[in-house]
Specification:
By secondary structure, this protein is α/β, with parallel strands linked by helices. 45% of the residues lie in helices and 16% in strands. It has a single domain, classed as TIM Barrel (Alpha-Beta Barrel), CATH 3.20.20. The structure holds 1,3-dihydroxyacetonephosphate. The site of 1,3-dihydroxyacetonephosphate (13P) has 14 residues, from strand 8.
Length: 252
């Protein structure tokens, strides 16, 4: 018996100016309010520049707002960075940390990701901790080992099912249109949950949500979201259109 409520999360990445970001967020909040309510939680993670605008626009709706990254420190001399407390202050409930694009573009290690996730939790945010193997690692048969290692290295010490979500995002499936097969996704999600059970205990592991991310679209969401250990999606491209994002939520 699972009591996990699915989470459908949009990661807008570095897309959107004020007008289109506002229209997208309002569009999602409006379809959500119009009902029938989907059987999932919904979240949008706009670029930092739009977080305040979006959070204000959807305040009081059922749509949650999150950041795409946060700094490990609460304040100080970190030019260009954003603290978790500042995201919370704007109305965020979540922060994505350790996305593969951050790991690649900004050389973020598991230790850095863990520190960021810890900071997010300390600020009262749910940390969405991203892990996932590259194509070379998959081809070398290292998929489960890589994901277990990233999970162990990135998971905060105080992780609970309430303050942590894991996102499994195979790097080769991100933005490529190449999606993990249901068998591939379920295999890794089950391995992640088994590893969580070894770290946190079986009870918490059974309640902690594990999202799939990587070319999730309306036409493949239903079978991915029906898998026993897939508790939602972290969606890039398809989260930039109200109709697509909504269609994915409805298949949850
Ligand atoms: P796409 O859905 O565009 O493949 O992006 C997935 C992703 O990276 C979400 O964080």
């Amino acid at each position: 018996m699972t009591t996990r409520r699915k989470l459908i999360a949009g990661n807008w990445k570095m897309n959107g100016l004020k007008a289109d970001g506002l229209a997208l967020a309002k569009g999602v909040a409006e379809v959500l309010a119009a009902g029938p309510a989907p059987a999932c939680d919904m979240l949008v993670c706009p670029p930092t520049t739009l977080v305040a605008l979006v959070a204000d626009a959807v305040a009081g709706s059922k749509l949650a707002v999150g950041g795409q990254d946060c700094h490990a420190k609460t304040s100080g001399a970190h030019t260009g960075d954003t603290s978790a407390a500042a995201l919370a202050d704007l109305g965020c409930g979540y922060a994505i940390v350790g996305h593969s694009e951050r790991r690649t573009d900004h050389a973020e290690t598991d230790a850095v990701v863990k520190a960021k996730a810890t900071a997010a939790q300390a600020a009262g945010l749910v940390a969405i901790v991203c892990i996932g193997e590259t194509l070379a690692q998959r081809d070398a048969g290292q998929t489960l080992e890589v994901n277990r290692r990233q999970l162990r290295g990135s998971l905060p010490d105080a992780a609970t099912p309430e303050n942590t979500v894991i996102a499994y995002e195979p790097v080769w499936a991100i933005g490529t249109g190449r999606v993990a097969t249901p068998a591939q996704a379920q295999e890794v999600h089950a391995a992640i949950r088994a590893e969580l059970a070894a770290i946190l205990g079986a009870g918490p592991a059974a309640r902690l949500r594990i999202l799939y991310g990587g070319s999730m679209k309306p036409d493949n969401a239903r079978e991915l979201l029906a898998l026993p250990d897939v508790d939602g999606g972290l969606i890039g491209g398809a989260a930039l259109k109200v109709a697509d994002f909504w269609a994915i939520a409805q298949s949850a």
